[in-house]
Amino acid sequence: MSNRLPDSSRTEQSPDERIVLAHGGGGELTRRLLLDHIVPKLANELLSPLTDGAVLPAAAGRICFTTDAFVVQPLEFPGGDIGRLAVAGTVNDLAVMGAVPKALSLALVIEEGLPIRVLDRIVDSIAATAAEADVLIATGDTKVIEHRGPDGLTITTTGVGELPEGLELDAGRIVPGDAILITGRIAEHGLAVMSARKGLAFQTDLVSDVAPLGGLAQCLLGAGGRVRFLRDPTRSGLAGVLADLAEETHLGIEIDEEAVPISATARHAAELLGLDPLTVANEGKIVAVVAGEDGPAVLAACREHPRGRHAAILGRFTEKTDWPLVELLTRVGGRRIVQRPYGEELPRIC
Amino acid sequence: MSNRLPDSSRTEQSPDERIVLAHGGGGELTRRLLLDHIVPKLANELLSPLTDGAVLPAAAGRICFTTDAFVVQPLEFPGGDIGRLAVAGTVNDLAVMGAVPKALSLALVIEEGLPIRVLDRIVDSIAATAAEADVLIATGDTKVIEHRGPDGLTITTTGVGELPEGLELDAGRIVPGDAILITGRIAEHGLAVMSARKGLAFQTDLVSDVAPLGGLAQCLLGAGGRVRFLRDPTRSGLAGVLADLAEETHLGIEIDEEAVPISATARHAAELLGLDPLTVANEGKIVAVVAGEDGPAVLAACREHPRGRHAAILGRFTEKTDWPLVELLTRVGGRRIVQRPYGEELPRIC
Fold first, then answer.
1. CATH 3.90.650.10 domain span(s) along chain B
2. Theoretical Cys-Cys bridge with B334: which of B118, B157, B237, B330, CB 3.0 to 4.6 Å?
3. Which pLDDT tens digits describe chain B residue by residue (350 residues)?
4. Contact B152, B114 (CB under 8 A)
């Protein structure tokens, strides 16, 4: 059904207007919120404010399906905001499965009291990031709950994408000698969010790397090398991805500390916070596992991509073992075991 | 990838254990929460705790795609809980589009302090309702945020279903004379939730009608009548659905007050709360628009279905008009205009 929004329907609003509980009741005020602030910005041929869902054309291949809830605080941070994060995060989960992202759903849970101008900025950011990622916001839901604290907005995005026939990315295909590549500098999302947090604010030029990575993933997959596996190092950072891979493959992993790309700014920020940057999230990078001899070719292709300029091969898989470890070969020639963080080091960074 | 949960991995827990922030950090405690309390209960061939999403087999027809955020309070209420509601609500959105539900995603945002035994009950309910609806939980996400108030859990479910070729449900096909059918008694979800709410508690035998309706929708569609449109009367109730339909079709609507199915218990509860039951949500009913002369046949088929025993034809579409109204023909022979509620009458009932 068409998006039936008359031009004259937009009501006048003061810049300080805030969300009230009645915006979420499902009645006339809910319609006004949707029709004035959300639907027109996201408008496309699939999205209709008054139907229960969207109809997508039949897909050629298998369908990839992924969901993420975003609870980042603050809602806006250097380099991005919760809206950009929600779109990019779900697009990236599809991208690292090898899928071409097609459509997203968008569920907003808004607390009473959120300034409508903040909501407007975030919806604008959602629209811009969806356009950048070439994905449609196909369907959505909006709920309003009572005020419970600052930054009262959570967003859940779910994505569907098409997985080309024949493409099989699977950690089960990884063998000893495979190379581990990362498409750029680590830790930049988590540290940028922390730098903006009340009570922890510190001066830094660091900005989040949050970005949709469909193009970068296709670049890696199209480079002519045998790509075994892709994953974006979000929560738990590079350390989390590598710990999962060691456990799943029963292979050891060696990482060369000197090869791990990190900016001086990020290194200093992590030191200031007492964090191991290996455990801090990115939202704009991909970890790729590639057949050892294909590593240089895939690396070269990646560095040609605007989002892959600082790519590096940082390690390799070693022999099969009952107790697979991730080991960091340090600058001074030592070995340190890299572990998945136990609990939260950086809560609410995505 | 397979769900690799060793039998010995389940850790001992005290019955009073609560969620802590570290359960959501993406590290080892997050894995324990997922592997001990969530993934095994929902296990199926699509769900893997360690991948970013699921791969669904290629679909034969068009794909329906819908999302809902659930913020109901209290989390458990007579006749259901937020888990059953989240599965049924999204399944029902697919069902009223005419689609066969295939897979759901499940995103949990849990506040610190939620008793783990409550989470366990809700995840059990999700698993049971998904089995009842014959739908797989294919992928998910879990986030933990700081304690902000009681009943700290929101759930967003997103569904994909297959829409059979040739099936076209569309309010644009509705013509004057079409009959309006409802599959059972109105207002039972919203009133049951209100009856359980702190500060408003009142004694009633009312239970929520929350249930997955895929089978009932297929029963309506398979009855041999010309079904134009289906919708489940959730937020804003029957009044909301009819107001949308009048606006969308530019046709008038007449409802016979005497024909609207409602239990005496629900009628009394609505009176007690000062609510118009026409505006109160169901979560287990369908409103169907059917060609006028096919109404009796579809009604008869519906009444044979266990969830359709109290079905009724309660009104009809009338002539085209610039100001389409929904009118209630009252028991005493009067006419009353039925309107979509303006703001929230019943916040957080879904």
1. 171-337
2. B330
3. 333 334 444 445 566 899 998 888 777 788 889 999 999 999 888 887 667 789 988 777 899 999 999 999 999 999 999 999 999 999 999 999 999 999 999 999 999 999 999 999 999 999 999 999 999 999 999 999 999 888 899 999 999 999 998 898 999 999 999 999 999 999 999 999 998 886 666 667 899 999 999 999 999 999 999 999 999 999 889 999 999 999 999 999 999 999 999 999 999 999 988 899 999 999 999 999 999 999 999 999 999 999 999 999 999 999 998 899 999 999 999 999 998 877 666 778 89
4. yes
- What string of DSSP letters covers A215-269? HHHHHHHTSSS-EEEEE---TTHHHHHHHHHHHHHTEEEEEEGGGS---HHHHHH
Cβ–Cβ contact A58 with B under 8 A: yes
Residue to substitute from A63, A198, A282, interface B, most B β-carbons within 10 A = A63
State how far the Cα of B342 lies from the Cα of B87, in Å rounded to an integer.
Answer: 28
Q: What's the rounded Cα separation, in Å, for the pair A68 and B107?
A: 6
Residue type, B127: A
Which of A25, A163, A347 lies closest to B343 in CB terms?
Answer: A25
Candidates B67, B108, B232; nearest CB to A140: B67
B81 neighbors B193 (Cβ within 8 angstroms): no
- Residues of chain A within CATH 3.30.1330.10 domain(s) are 21-163
Q: What residues are paired with B54 via a beta bridge?
A: A65
Query: At a CB cut-off of 8 Å and minimum separation 6, what does A169 contact?
Result: A96, A97, A98, A227, A228, A229, A230
Rounded to an integer, what distance in angstroms lies between the CA atom of residue B13 and that of residue B122? Answer: 17
Bridge partners of B254? B316, B327
For the domain bounded by A21-163, which CATH number is listed? Answer: 3.30.1330.10
